[in-house]
Amino acid sequence: MKKILLLLLTTYLFGEPINFKTVEADFIQTVTNDQNKVITYKGKLFLSKDNEARWQYTAPIEKSVISRNNRVSIIEPELYQVTVIKTESELNLVKIYKSSLKAKNKRIAYFDNMEISIYEDKNFITKLAYKDKIDNKIEIVFSNVKKNQKLSKEIFN
Fold this sequence. Notes:
By secondary structure, the chain is mainly beta. It has helices at about 1-10, 95-100; strands spanning about 20-30, 40-50, 50-60, 65-70, 70-75, 80-85, 100, 105-110, 115-120, 125-130, 135-145. The chain is built from two helices and eleven strands. The protein has an eleven-stranded antiparallel sheet with strand order 6-5-4-3-2-1-11-10-9-8-7. The longest helix is centred in the first third of the chain and has 10 residues, at about 1-10.
């Protein structure tokens, strides 16, 4: 799910019409299961145009999810655990966004048999919503978006 989450959250950001070198944004992610239990995560997202992303979760636990090309690393300090996932091929975020369809007040993209709703304003994505493979409802809302800030390459390591 984390690999898919990374892809979904960055899909729009690498597409048109937004042009950027880097992005830094706060996010709130809610996960609602089929019994309507909700978990809310908060954190900061860092992106580069080089297909790199870091999701720095700050609540309810600290965790980092780092994506570079065809590798996703999940760092969970409280569990003293690092998980590395290699994908079969590089995630092509531009293609996914470009294949999305315009709907009434959103865009719809499809990835890995999931429908992703992409809500946007004229400058940036505002929200992503989808159901994962185990029927959890996922919603991610972005705020305090800063584009083209200088980011250390260490952020993505």
